Each structure stands twice: as C-alpha cells, then as structure tokens.
Amino acid sequence: MHQLTLAEIARGLADKKFSSEELTRALLARIHQLDPQINSFISVTDELAISQARAADARRAAGESGALLGAPIGHKDLFCTQGIRTSCASKMLDNFKAPYDATVVSKLAEAGTVTLGKTNMDEFAMGSANESSYYGPVKNPWNFEHVPGGSSGGSAAAVAARLLPAATATDTGGSIRQPAALTSLTGLKPTYGRVSRWGMIAYASSLDQAGPLARTAEDCALLLQGMAGFDAKDSTSIDEPVPDYSASLNASLEGLRIGLPKEYFGAGLDPRIADLVQASVKELEKLGAVVKEISLPNMQHAIPAYYVIAPAEASSNLSRFDGVRFGYRCENPVDLTDLYKRSRGEGFGAEVQRRIMVGAYALSAGYYDAYYLQAQKIRRLIKNDFMAAFNDIDVILGPTTPNLAWKIGAKNNDPVAEYLEDVYTITANLAGLPGLSMPAGFVDGLPVGVQLLAPYFHEGRLLNVAHRYQQVTDWHTRAPNGF
Ligand code: GLN
Predict the structure, then answer these.
(1) Is residue 129 part of a domain?
(2) 476 Cβ partners below 8 Å, 6+ apart?
(3) 79 alpha carbon to ligand 1 midpoint, in Å?
(4) Best of 77, 79, 132, 151 to mutate for ligand 1, by most ligand atoms within 8 A of CB?
(5) What pLDDT does residue 326 have?
(6) In terms of Cα–Cα distance, which of 142, 79, 147 is closest to 107?
(7) CA 286 to centroid of ligand 1, rounded, Å
(8) Residue among 121, 122, 182, 411 whose CB has most ligand 1 atoms within 8 A, to mutate
(9) Averaged pLDDT for residues 145-150
(10) pLDDT band, residue 316 (cuts 50/70/90)
C-alpha cells in the first residue's frame, strides 16, 4: 500500500478497497520500521493518526467524499499543531506544544487528512541540506551518505522513502523545490499570499510560503487544493478565488511558450544536470511547446540580496524567543540579561545565531542603507526582470539546483558554499512567484530536478506542464533501493 499515490489512495478509499485506518496502520508500522535509518520524522503521532483515520472512515461511511478524506500526510515541524510538539527542529522549541493549529493544518484536517507525524527540517528552516536540525541530520533515501536537501528535508525524505504519499513543506528560498529535486519528488511553492502563513513559525515573513511535496504533479494539485485560499488571519493572504487545480492538469501544451534564461546555463551548473534539463525541454517540445532564450540580467545579485533580506527578517522574527514566553530557558539565570543571553545562546544552533547576527547588523543604524535598502532595490530589479520576461513567454524552465545532492558534512565548514546552492530557487521568493520542481533523471544514482516558474497565481499552469511531462516520462515513478 505504501506505493500508492494520493490520487490512487483516493480511488482505493472510494472503492472500499481498504479503509483509512488500515492504510494508516500500515504506514505507521513502516515509519517505525524504516525511519530510524533516515531520521525524517521528529514526532510520529500514532494516536492522533488512528483517531483521524477512524473519523475519516466514519465520514465516508456517512456518504461524504473528497480526494483528501482519509489521506495520510505529514506536516513539516514548523506548522503549529494543537497539543503536539512544534519544534522547528530547534532546542529552543523542543518543549513547545502549540496551543492551536496553523490554518494549513486545520484546513487539511477539515478536508479529512490524517496526520502521521511532524517531519524533520533545518533549524528554523534555515539551510539547504537538513543538517542543522537539533534532532540530527536527515539522510537521502537515494544514498544515505548524501543530504536530502533542505530545509524541508524530512518531508522530502519521508515521501521519497514511501513512508508517506505526501507532506506539507515551506519555501523561503527554495526549501520545497530544492529537496524535491534532490530526492526525485514534485514540489510546488505557490505565489506569495496563496496559502495562509498563520500558525507557520516565521523565518522571513516576506518570503515564506507553504506548499505541497509529493511524488506527482497530480498529487501536488490535490494537496494544494486543500491548502490554498484566503485567510483573514494572515494580513498578506490574497483574496483570489482558488481554481480547480486537478481540472487543468490535462490541458494541451500545444503552443506553450517556454523561456530558457541564458544566465541559468553558465559556469557553476553541473554539465550533467544541464544535459538532463535539455532532455526535459525536448520532451516538452514533442508535446507542442515552443522554446526561446530569455535573459534575467539581475539574477547574479539574487544570493547577496536574499542573504541580507532573509536574515534581517529572521533577526526580527526570532527576537520573540527570549527564554520568557516560549520554549527553552537557561538554568539559574543571575539576572534578566543573563536569562536572555544564555537562553538564546544555548537554545539556538550555530547557523541560526549566524543569521540573527547578520540580520541585526544589516538592520542596524548606519548599515541599513548600505545593506538592507540596497537589497530591497535589487529585489525590485529581479521582479522587474521576471515581469518583462513573462510578456512573451508562459513558463520559465531551468535546473532546480546547480549540483547533485552533496555528501553529509561536505559543506559544514563553508556556509556560503551551501548558500550558493540556492541560486536558481531564491529569485522566485524575492519576486513572490510560483515555482515547481519535477524529477528529470539521475546522475550517478542521485536525482536531478527541473524547475518551472510561472506568473503570479498560475500554479495550475505549472501543475499542468509537470503532469503532461509525467505522462510521457517515468522518473517520478522510480523508488530508491529498498523502499
Ligand atoms: N536555503 C535557504 C536558506 O537557508 C532557503 C531555506 C528555505 O527556503 N526555508 O535560507
């Protein structure tokens, strides 16, 4: 049963081939058996899962239907879950039980999903390798010596290892698309404002966006349907109608205009990844797409701008963790300053502390204009580049990552080397655009992803292109050895 996609599960439940409780028990047993090798879960919520599965079975028995009714999923451990530890993979929140559910969690629960657990991640979603978790690194199911990507590495590894059909994740600079690429999954970062951020522990509020990680575009459509929509509790949520994402999956690609940014294919890109990206373009051309070269001239400034803006926002967001109101408090503080200093010094890991320092520096009087303001101006230029490009194309296509999944520990002494891995993903966050990564092949047994970007609120177009591609390719159906 663990090989079933969300769409297949929906059919199986509707046809009474199995119950949600049977499926849930089978997957929980699989998680307990296999996850110790991968470390993709921080908490497994057996009791909650069984009770939600029984409730979903009862709703079906009473005549209700719905694609997500009884579907088992996992939530990245930065979505607040009432009464359940919500740690953000930090010692700071190791003892934190959220008093309420995030909007994403409550919407999906209403749709009938079953929460099997909370997935591992980089501490406070800062990272591209899932090595900075307080609960230890996550291993890539395709090769245990390699990272699964981050920060949503737990959600990705769990889905890739067939412990779950799908999971929620978040993307501030690539944390859905990059782990999707490195574990051979489909992952979608929606338009900023499409999915509510309420109850999602904030990293960089102007960049954070939640979305689905699954094996297929079809499953991403189902999960996104349950997550998207206006939420008055999130002031940046946008009140746009949510289209039926499954309905447009099969639309023809005849005449679809694909733009290939020339800046994407220069030095720094592994040529074996470039070859697979070109092969995916050929497949899409066979389906009727037309390809043209475009230019995104300010792309080279994206990493420096992002690594000022994201830490700046993080330094402000993480000031709430002071040892008084939430989470970790140091032992025997001698006074208030000691309490603050030691609670934060002992509760946050090294990368989080680095970001807070960089961010506080960039925002400080005297440096604000030189760093933060400059970065905001670059952000606007990057957005303008995209707006100009989308005047004559429908989607942008390129690699999701410049390199294959690297070995665990390989970049530990060089944070900037890890930051550079985000070069293709962070521009979509800076501009607020939707982006998707889909499996496009393997090099040395390690997965490669192709990224698609579209204009605002065109998630349906991304899912459509990926779905049509997945009908003529089988990369997304392959499973890692032993899973
Ligand atoms: N790797 C990026 C960072 O460390 C993005 C992380 C994310 O998207 N949450 O900030």
Answers:
(1) yes
(2) 184, 185, 186, 215, 216, 438, 439, 470
(3) 16
(4) 151
(5) 85
(6) 79
(7) 35
(8) 122
(9) 97
(10) very high
Domain presence at residue 367: no
How does DSSP assign 120-182, residue by residue? Answer: --SGGG--SSS---TT-PPPBTTBTTB---SSSHHHHHHHHTTS-SEEEEEESSSTTHHHHHH
Q: Does residue 267 register a pLDDT over 90?
A: no
Model confidence at 135: pLDDT above 90: yes
Q: Is the peptide bond before 65 cis (omega within 30 degrees of 0)?
A: no
Ligand 1 pocket, 24 CB below 6 A? Answer: no
**pLDDT at position 477:** 98
- Is residue 291 assigned to a domain? no
Domain holding 11, by residue range, is: 6-256+434-477
Q: The CATH number of the domain where 95 resides is what?
A: 3.90.1300.10
- Cα(48) to centroid of ligand 1, in Å? 30
pLDDT at 123 over 90: yes
CB of 13 sitting under 6 A from ligand 1? no
Q: What is the number of the ligand 1 atom nearest to the C-alpha of 126?
A: 4
Please report, rounded to a whole number, the percentage of residues in the chain having pLDDT higher than 90.
Answer: 98
Q: What is the pTM of this model?
A: 0.98
The residue-averaged pLDDT of 78-103 equals: 97
Q: Is 125 in the pocket of ligand 1 (CB under 6 A)?
A: yes
Q: Which atom of ligand 1 is nearest to the CA of 351?
A: 4
Give the residue carrying structure tokens 């997965």. Answer: 447
Q: How many other C-beta atoms can be found within 10 angstroms of the C-beta atom of residue 89?
A: 34
- Number of folded domains that form the chain: 1
Provide φ and ψ at 459, rounded to 5°. Answer: -55, -35
Distance CA 170, CA 187 (A): 10
Residues 6+ apart with CB under 8 A from 481: none
Rounded distance from Cα 16 to ligand 1 centre (Å)? 41
Select from 88, 132, 170, 172 the residue to mutate for testing ligand 1; criterion: most ligand atoms less than 8 Å from CB: 172
pLDDT at 335 over 90: yes
Structural domain contains residue 46: yes
Count of beta carbons in the 10 Å neighbourhood of residue 362? 21
Atom index in ligand 1 nearest the CA of residue 310 equals 10
- Interval between CA 206 and ligand 1 midpoint (Å): 13
Q: Please give the average per-residue pLDDT across 441-445, as a whole number.
A: 98
**Catalytic amino acids?**
76, 151, 175
